[in-house]
Structure of Cell division protein FtsB:
Amino acid sequence: MAERRRPRRRSTGGRAQGSSSRRPERARREGRRARLRRGLSAKRASGAAKVLGLSNTRRAAVVAIVLCALAFTIAVPLRTYLIQRSEVAVQEQRMAELEQEVARLEARKAELSDPAEVKAEARRRLRFVLPGETPYMVQLPEDERRARQPGGEQQPPPKGTWYERLWDSVSR
């Protein structure tokens, strides 16, 4: 393979060159070094391209394919990581809610361990009356209005046992 070289400047022969047209010695050396560096790096790059048989366009295409493959390789695990992280956050929030509910239920359990509280709860919710007490039911006018409203009426209790009603609903 033939290497291309820059032609060297030839001296002007017998013509005299003035000191103003000559570059200083140090500047000439730095210029030579820069040219050598450029030449070596260009030779290395062109040598690699020649060895692989790739032009600049082909090298760019190979780099693009490699980058795409890396992106696809990283994308799936990254997506899985982000989904799992969001699921963990949801589950932690749910766990905090459940812990609050457990604490509330424990407090309620502690309240109901007192026999006086149990009696008060039975009187309030179940209308429990001790022997010898006279129960009173106070009906307020608001209760009568709710009973008269069509949406406020309760359905009469069903007649018969549950299995008779079930049989009647199946046999019809």
Summary: The helical segments are 25-52, 56-112, 115-126, 141-148, 162-171. The longest helix spans residues 56-112.
